[in-house]
Each structure stands twice: as C-alpha cells, then as structure tokens.
Design brief:
Layout (H helix, E strand, L loop, with lengths): L1 H13 L1 H22 L13 H13 L9 E7 L9 H15 L4 E2 L7 H22 L4 H13 L10 E8 L9 H14 L5 E5 L11 H18 L2 H25 L9 H32 L7 H9 L3 H31 L7 H32 L23 H11 L1 H16 L7 E2 L11 H13 L7 E6 L6 H16 L4 E9 L5 E8 L6 H12 L1 H8 L2 E5 L1 H35 L3 H26 L12 E2 L2 H29 L4 H29 L6 H33 L8 H6 L15 H7 L2
Parallel strand pairs: 5-10
Antiparallel strand pairs: 1-3, 1-4, 2-3, 6-8, 6-9, 7-8
Helix pairs in contact: 1-2, 1-12, 1-13, 2-9, 2-13, 4-7, 5-6, 8-9, 8-10, 8-23, 9-10, 9-13, 10-12, 10-13, 10-23, 10-24, 12-13, 12-22, 14-15, 14-23, 15-21, 15-24, 20-21, 20-22, 21-22, 21-24, 22-23, 22-24, 23-24
C-alpha cells in the first residue's frame, strides 16, 4: 500500500492542476446533485420487526387513519393570558382570526376541519355523550358511574383544558408524509402563527411537521477558525495552516452534498444525519491532512540534513530542492503518513458501518453518512492535498507567523513531548495507576444513565416545540404528551355483547395499574372483533416512571388473556420510542464487545504484538466509560451548571459515540505507536523506542487532538440536543483517549512491559497478514529509484 500511495502522491504533486480540476468537477457535480435532488429530511425513527411498530401498522389497517410518526401534521397550541380563558370575547376574536388565516392557507389541506378548541370542545361533549353512553351501559355501569366515566373520558380527549385557558388543534400539510412537506410551506405557516400572536393570545406549535432542522454552518465555521489557530501554532506558517483546512472543506463539501442528494432515494435520512456527518468529516479531514503536511515538512528537512542547521541555513537549503525532488518527497509523505491515514480511516469506517448490523434504518443512515464523509476525507487527503502542495510549490511554508516559534520536532531538543515521556519513564507504574483511576472515577455516573428518544419535550428551552409541549403539560397534565394506544382483539367467535364486556374489562384492568391515569375505548370495529384504547399515563413521555408503567401494562396482558381469552398490545409514539430505547440499550454491551475485539485484531495485525492491541482495546473501553460518565453528569444530572435543562441522553447517542470514538482512538494509537514500533524494529531498545517514537509523534497528535476537540466542542452551540450532547461527548472522548490513554497510559504500560510489548508468537506471526503502515518499504528510497518505481 505504501508504494501505491507514494505513486499517487508523487503523481498528484507533478500533475497538480489535473488533480485539482478533477476534484473541483466532483465538488461542483455533488453540489448540483444536492441542489436538484434534495428533499426534506425525514424524522422517522423506527425499527423493523418491533412489536409496537407492527401493532401501529395493525391499528392503521383495522381502523384507518395516518401514521402518527410520519403524518405531515402539526399541533397548534393556543393559550389565553393568566386570569382569562379562550372563551373570553377579546381572546376568542383573536383566536377566530388565527383560524381564518389558517383555513385560507394554501400550505395546508383539509382546512375545513380546522376548528378552534372552544367550538370543538362544545361539539365533542354532545357527540361524545351520545356515542359513549351505550358502550358504558353495556358494561353494566350505574348512571353515576357512567357520568363519572364520561367526564374522565372527555378530559383525556378534549382539545380544551379544564380551566379553559389552553387549547389545541391539528393542522395537516400538503403531502403524504413529513418528507413531502415543502420548506416554504412550513415557513409560511410558522410566519402566519407568529404574526397572529397578540396580547390576548399566545400561540405555539409542535408535532411531526415542525421537527425539521434548518441547515446551519455556525458550528463548522467556529471549528474551522479554532483549528486554523492551532494549525498556525503547529506550523508557524499561514500557508501551511491553510492547507489542511482547504483539504477538509473540499472533502466535507462533497460528502454533505451527496448526503443531501441521497434524500431523494431514501427516507431514512433525518435532520441530524448531515450535521453529525459534518462534525465527523470536518474533524478527521483536518487531522488526516495535518498528518500528511507534517510528514512532508519532516521529509523536506531530513532530505537536506536540516536537523542540525540554523534556521537561515535550513531555509537556504530548502530553496535548492528541485520540483522533481519535491514531488518525490511529497510521495514519501503520502506513502508513509498516508498509509497510517488510510488505516486510521478504515478503522473509523469499520466502526461506523458495523452499526448497520443493528438494523435500525435511521441509525444506519447516520452511520453510513458519517462513514461517507470519512472515506472522502481519506481520498482527498492522499490525492487532492499533494496536488495543492504542488500548486504552492516552495511557498508551502511561507507567510510565517511572526509571533509563533514552531521548530521541527527533529530539531528541538528536548521537545515537550520528550520531556513528558521521560517523566513517565521514571515512574511508569505511578502514571499507569493514576491515569486508570482518573478514568474509572469519571466513569462512575454511567450507572445512572437514562436513555430516551427525542420528543418535543427534549427540544431547546424556549423553542416553539418545547413551549407547546410545556403548555400542554401545564394545561392538560403531563400524561397528555405521553398517551399510548392499546389494540384489544377478542377471541374468535366472541359475540358483540361479550366483546363489549371484554373491552370493558381491559379498560378496568389497565386503569388499575400504577402509573395509569385513565384508559378508555375510543373506537370499535363494526363486528366488535377489535377495539382501540387510549391510555393516559400519569407522567410525561421521557419520565422513567412512564417506562415502568408501560412495562406493567404489558406484564398484565398474560393474566387478562388467561381470564378473557382476548389479547391486547400497546403502541403509540410513547411506546414505540420506549421500545427503541430498550432495543438500543440491549445491543450496547454486545456492540462494545464487538468493537473492542475488532480493535484488538486490527492492531495485532498492524503492530505484530499481543500486548499493544490489548492495551489499546482496554484503554478505549476506559476512555468510553469515562466519556459516558461525564456526559451523564453534565447533561443528565446538571453538573457545573453547563445546562439549565437536564434531560435523559438520547437513546442512540451511546452506540453512535462508541462507533465514532473507536475510530478516533485507533487514529491516535496508529499515529503515535507506529513511530515507536519503527524505532524498535530498527534496533533501538524497547524503552528508547517508546521515548523516541513519542517525541516524533507527540506534537502532531497533540495538535490533531486539540483540533478535533475544538471542532466537536463548537457543536455545543447547536440548538439540536443530540448534536449538542454528541459534540461535547466527542470532545471529552478525544481528551480522555488522546491525553490520558494514548499519551500517558500506553507509554507507561509499554515501559513496564519492555521487550515483551513487541513480541508475537512465531506461529501467529506466520498466519496473520503483514501490513506496512509505517511505510517501511519506502525507507531509503532515493529520487532516482522513485523515477523507476513510478514508471
């Protein structure tokens, strides 16, 4: 691989304008595809084969209606000022004006069904009494019990709160699903609602149609600015600092454009997918380019024997290198550092694509989209970047930053990295134990981790969706936001009268369960073979008690079936999301085990060692545990006051985090430890090899880690909860893994192991493939030999 990458890098340098032109054509083509094919992203978060989803489909098949998770609908919530009601004349006048405006909107369909909550509630009470009384009488209830049941049933369905202050109504956008809604239609309706808000009437909105996220770029821009500053400090040159940014932006632009174009072919891409891919693609794109540019700089200095030269003499020598020689050195940089980049990128790709085996479409889409941006970042780094180096020629390290002193690591004695590793070498056991204890202590809160799917209740505080959720919570009780649907099916051959009694028994049994506020029959088939129940819990959608209530309802089904011969199943958004959280939680530990084993096998092949991959895998597990612990502390428990809105972690965040962190951890392991192994193979003692390798790699790994942390941390500014938490968690993970595991625990352990760290049983050494990640095949290659090699 090293020789192939050498030829690509050298050719790109020599034929720079051809390579640059091809990549610009690809970028323009991807942008054109996105502009012409892009559709609205989907907010569907479902899992095939899950019982609650199958029950949801069965309910729609039996009773009709639209899919609650994908219907192009929204809920408008209106509220009168404190001390007033929606029936008051001045409030009602503003409410009627809002209804009239919505009925005349071309962005909506079925506008004649839009009715204000006051009118709807009055009509519902009369119709409800007429329709429900016979059902309740069939259950043998007394008049008083019927009256109480009617009042309770109506309270859970009425669009008007008991105090008359809060009301809701549904609007339906044009289209079959949320993906079919035009962005302009959503804007038109939200503008209309905002304009209709008055001193007499507060208005907000929530629901499927309003869950789309606008494409932003603030976080990316902040990340790029911070990365640029770190790169300037690293290279001491404005030009050199800009090259990794150019490479990363080109790769990211192509990747994100292709993801948006992909919305035309799949409904699994949600609003979070491109943002997450942007976060990962930008970070790895900058880092991979950084490693290659840094290696090119080292190759230039080594070529002229500049390790012991004064800066002015070194600069003069560098000017004397011909264009052909520079192309050769660029090829060496791509062949050596590029091999590690390709392997590091491969580990990220494997970890991300492995998420597809869980068979969750939206999670698979997120993983594959992020993997796409990583793959493009690797290809751009080894082909586009050397072409840009060729375009700048001798000006690559020009435009020096006057306030920055960035000596080459080979010429700085001792480097900060060497000073640090010498400290570790003196007391390796102390550093190993201290690093391990720090990670274990930070990991303790992980045992309190709660997972939940995103809802309007987890939206940003102050957003229309969150406001609407809170108004419903205050006006109707928290259970209104967490209602579930029960499907009860009578045994075959059950008479109409017996079926009514069976359904009544289901209502009574479920209503008696702790945590259930109320249950009622809302629909029956004409032949009475099935009934649909509405179940209102006492607690909210993301409350742990609601999950316990759901499980208790399901646990009670066996006794109900044994007594009546009928059966019931539970569905609805709350049940579906809870099931998704359970499914994701159940696969978390197996996935961690798969990733750790995979890390061990990959690193065993690369480093021809059993101890090095074992240390890497265990270190990865510790850094992930610490990351989870601190993330739970900050975002769920409210540590340090960073968030004023503690929430359960989003269900798919841990498993996505594991996949991404695995790849990043292996990046640092490869870039740091390969130089250690290279020294050991070439005759250095085990201790000297670790120290020397650390000295060579510490500066660039530190810069790469700081860049990644900066890019990820910038996404904390996003409004979307998943991205905010994911950004902070990834920044923490990079810190723990790069600085505590890779730059402290790993060298400490290697010092303790000595020669044993680099040994492999002879029989195993024969059967595992040999991978030249260090570019050993290029060592000693001269420019004339390169000419022959590239023919």
């Amino acid at each position: 691989m090293a020789k192939l990458l050498y030829r690509i890098g050298r050719s790109a340098y020599l034929h720079r304008w051809r390579f640059i032109a091809v990549w610009l054509i690809i970028l323009i083509g991807a942008g054109t595809a996105a502009a012409t094919l892009m559709r609205s992203t989907s907010e569907s978060m479902t899992i095939p084969g899950m019982q609650s989803l199958e029950t949801n489909d069965k309910v729609m098949e039996i009773f009709g209606g639209s899919d609650a998770l994908n219907a192009p609908s929204g809920t408008v919530v209106v509220r009168a000022p404190e001390g007033k009601t929606l029936s008051d004349s001045d409030v009602k006048a503003d409410l009627d004006a809002l209804i009239a405006d919505l009925q005349s909107s071309t962005a909506l369909t079925a506008t004649d069904e839009i009715v204000d909550p006051v009118t709807a509630a009055a009509g519902m009470e009369q119709q409800f009494t007429e329709a429900k009384t016979p059902q309740l009488e069939a259950q043998g209830l007394s008049d008083k019990e019927i009256e109480a049941a009617l009042a309770a049933d109506l309270a859970d369905l009425s669009p008007l709160s008991e105090d008359g202050r809060t009301g809701t109504f549904t609007i339906l956008f044009n289209g079959e699903s949320t993906m079919d809604i035009e962005a302009d239609d959503i804007t038109a309706v939200t503008d209309l609602i905002d304009d209709a808000t008055t001193d007499n009437l507060d208005i907000s909105y929530a629901g499927n149609a309003f869950q789309t996220t606008e494409v932003g770029g603030t976080a990316e821009i902040i990340g790029i600015i911070v990365a640029a500053l770190i790169l300037i400090v690293t290279f001491g040159s404005f030009v050199a600092a800009g090259l990794p940014l150019i490479s990363a932006i080109v790769g990211l632009g192509i990747g994100i454009a292709l993801i948006y174009a992909g919305t035309a072919f799949t409904d699994s891409i949600n609003s979070t997918t491109p943002t997450l891919a942007s976060m990962i693609g930008l970070a790895v794109g900058i880092d991979y380019a950084l490693f290659i540019v840094s290696r090119f700089r080292n190759e230039l200095i080594s070529y002229v024997g500049g390790n012991d030269l004064e800066p002015k003499e070194l600069a003069q020598k560098l000017k004397g290198i011909s264009h052909q020689e520079r192309a050769h050195l660029a090829g060496l940089a791509v062949g050596k550092a590029g091999s590690a980049v390709c392997f590091a990128g491969l580990t990220v790709l494997i970890a991300l694509t492995a998420l597809s085996i869980i068979n969750i479409p939206f999670l698979t889409a997120m993983a594959l989209a992020a993997a796409l941006t990583v793959a493009i970042a690797v290809i751009v780094a080894v082909s586009f970047l050397p072409a840009v180096l060729g375009a700048f020629g001798t000006k690559v390290f020009a435009a020096r930053a006057p306030w920055v002193k960035a000596p080459d690591p080979e010429n700085e004695k001792p480097t900060m990295g060497l000073s640090w590793v010498r400290m570790i070498r003196k007391r390796p056991a102390v550093f190993l134990i201290t690093g391990g204890l720090i990670l274990i202590l930070f990991a303790i809160p992980v045992f309190q981790m709660r997972l939940a799917m995103p809802t309007d209740g987890t939206s940003k505080l102050g957003s229309p969706q969150r406001t609407a959720y809170e108004w419903i919570d205050e006006g109707f009780g928290p259970g209104r936001n967490a209602q579930m649907v029960g499907l009860v099916e009578a045994a075959e051959g059950t008479s109409t009268d017996d079926a009514a009694a069976v359904y009544g028994a289901a209502v009574q049994d479920i209503s008696a369960i702790d945590g259930v506020k109320h249950a009622q029959i809302i629909q029956m088939t004409e032949d009475s073979s099935a009934a649909q129940l509405l179940i209102t819990p006492e607690n909210g959608a993301t409350d742990a008690a609601t999950s316990e209530t759901l499980q208790a309802i399901r646990d009670a089904e066996a006794a109900f079936a044994a007594e009546t011969g009928a059966s019931y199943e539970i569905t609805g958004a709350t049940a579906i999301y809870d099931d998704i959280s359970d499914r994701l939680s159940s696969v978390l530990i197996p996935y961690v085990a798969i990733v750790v084993v995979l890390a061990f096998l990959l690193l065993m092949i690369v480093f021809r060692s059993l101890w090095v991959p074992l240390i890497a895998a265990l270190g990865f597990a510790l850094s992930v545990a610490a990351t989870f612990g601190v993330t739970v502390g900050i975002w769920q428990e409210g540590w340090f006051g960073i968030t004023n809105d503690p929430q359960p972690l989003l269900s798919f965040l841990p498993i996505m985090l594991i996949g991404i962190v695995f790849g990043l951890a292996m990046d640092y392991q490869v870039f740091l430890v390969t130089r250690m192994r290279e020294g050991y193979v070439h005759g250095k003692t085990a201790g000297d090899a670790v120290s020397n390798g650390f000295k060579h790699g510490a500066r660039v790994v530190t810069a790469a880690a700081l860049i990644m942390m900066s890019v990820f941390a910038a996404f904390i500014l996003m409004d979307e909860q998943l991205i905010k938490v994911m950004g902070s968690a990834l920044a923490l993970a990079v810190f723990f893994d790069a600085f505590i595991v890779r730059m402290t625990i790993v060298p400490a352990t290697l010092f303790l192991l000595g020669d044993r760290a680099w040994t492999l049983p002879a029989w195993l050494d024969k059967i595992i493939p040999k991978v030249d990640v260090e570019g050993e095949g290029l060592v000693g290659m001269t420019a004339p030999e390169a000419e022959k090699s590239s023919v």
